[in-house]
Amino acid sequence: MDTTPTDMSHLFEQLGLPHQTGAINNFIDSHSVDDGVAIWQAKFWSPAQASFLREALDADAQWSELIDQLDTMLRK
């Protein structure tokens, strides 16, 4: 059983990104996902990050809700 906390900081850590609050805010401010593009298809993800996002969403995994929140935040 995975006991990793599921919050935005830990999602960013799972993605291999800086996970401090300021770094998360900077990432969201400097990236966006276009309409009609799934979050995992955004050009700024590495192949491993895109795969993690897609697989988590497909499996409705513990990260799905946070990925959906991040998706909303990236659609400006």
Q: What would you say this structure looks like, in words?
A:
The longest helix has 12 residues, at 47-58. Helices cover 51% and strands 0% of the residues. The protein has helices at residues 8-14, 21-30, 47-58, 64-73.
By secondary-structure content and strand pairing, the structural class works out as mainly alpha
Low-pLDDT segments, ≥5 res: none
Compute the number of strand runs. Answer: 0
Tell me the fraction of residues in β-strands, as a range: under 5%
Approximate shape: globular
Average predicted confidence as pLDDT: 94
Percent range of helical residues: 40-55%
Could you give the distance between the termini? Answer: 35 Å
Largest sheet data: none
Rg over alpha carbons: 12 Å
Order of helices and strands: HHHH
Highlighted features:
76 residues; globular; 4 helices; mainly alpha; single chain; 51% helix; 0% strand
Record the SSE blueprint:
Blueprint: H1 8-14, H2 21-30, H3 47-58, H4 64-73
